[in-house]
# Entry
Amino acid sequence: MSLTAGSRPDGTRPPAAVEEPAAAVATATAQERAARKGGKLGKASKANKAAKVPWRIRLRRDRALILMTLPVIVLLLLFNYVPLLGNVVAFQNYDPYVSSNGVTAIFHSPWVGVEQFSRMVDDPLFWDAAQNTILLFVLQLVLYFPIPIALALLINSVVRPRVRAVAQAIMYLPHFFSWVLVVTVFQQMFGGAGIIAQTLEDHGWSGFDLMTDADLFKYLVTAQTVWKDAGWGIIVFLAALAAVSTDLYEAAAMDGAGRWRRMWHVTLPALRPVIALLLVLRVGDALSVGFEQFLLQRDAVGVGASEVLDTYVWNMGIQNGDFSYAAAVGLVKGAIGVCLVLAANKFAHLLGEQGVYQK
# Structure
């Protein structure tokens, strides 16, 4: 019996699936991949075409937003970026009386190069102010920075919303007080003629005057900062806590976690990105511990205890009229602040946090 091509010995033909050549399967697979790839490329090309909107159309589309942000941009340029051009006097022996206009006096003042910076390095008063600034920053970072976090956790644990609202309002109300009022309140409380000292003297005890004690001044200004601004920092942490899902707390409670365990494993991890962000900003502002607060109490405790870099720049530039030297000190202070922000943000990235900006 003769067999035809592709037939079995019994005369039957194999199934079509078996009969299909492997080349056809490979061709179909390649076509399918090309179709998927072409679909993706088509979507990408459509997205690129949609993104490449002419600037005139975008300007017409977003003109309302641009008009809203235009005043802010103008103010930012006038008060934050244009004054940066005045840092050129740090490399001059600036004399504002050379011309009737202070701006044109810059072009008539002689250039001295880095002479002002060399003078700053050799000035012992500058190093005393820098030492006081760093000491106060470390003290405020250790004593002040954790307090808003603790207060936010305390308020968040209050069940009744009315009690939480009243407590929060009372705590951040001092933020709206001026430093003149804050120093006055502390003077009336802890000064030599304050309520506490007078009460102790009326009962036969010797009075005290914390407002004129140079050794305790750094703790005094830290207490003033805590009383004035700790309540305001609560708002940021409460906003972060409001975003935490209640399902996490319920799941932790079902697993047997108590209040402290839930706080440690749920609440604090939720606050970690905000803590890292505020810590980076605080480190970048390390050399700006305050101006008005120290200037108001300068005469009470003396220059040695109250002189920081901000008051030092004001004293040399405004009081003594040495604008070039004050500009040099301020320029170095700003450059160090930028370096601290970059270093702190890099450290935040190493810890897995975003920081001020992403990588």
